[in-house]
TrEMBL record:
Residues 1-23 form the signal peptide. This is Orphan protein. Keywords: Signal.
Amino acid sequence: MNSVLTRILVFLAALMAANASFAHQQKAALTKVLFNARTGNIEIMHRFNLHDAEHATEEMFGQGADIIQSEKTQKQFQQYVTERFALLDKNDDELPLTSIGYEVDGKFFWVYQETAITEAMTSLKVIHHALRDIWPKQSNMVNVEGKGKLKTLTFDKDTELLEINFQH
């Protein structure tokens, strides 16, 4: 009987340790760049793990920063993200991105942007430095949809700029 109890306790301890590890920072974000033909816009949706955003805002804006409850902190984080993300055309001209908003949704913090689709867009260059200036291990994945097959870009390590060509 003692052996069974010991096994149960070991299992429960392992389960608790696994749950604690999931609460740690993921150091990964996902951005969706959607060419929406219906609206004529490129819609950008940045998704950050709320736990990562909490730690980042405390580090950037001080101990009083509260991304869950504070509108001020949420706005600061939105501005931080929009300053570190850019789309460039084939001539290296930055596309003008409009901030649409932000929200806390469950365990994620979302930042939204958009810009008009230009007709002659044959390629797109992307810069995504959000949180990479805080954590060198941060990885930002960008999925580009609505212009041919889904294309994925990954910003990690020393990656500064990546390009997608839409021509076959």
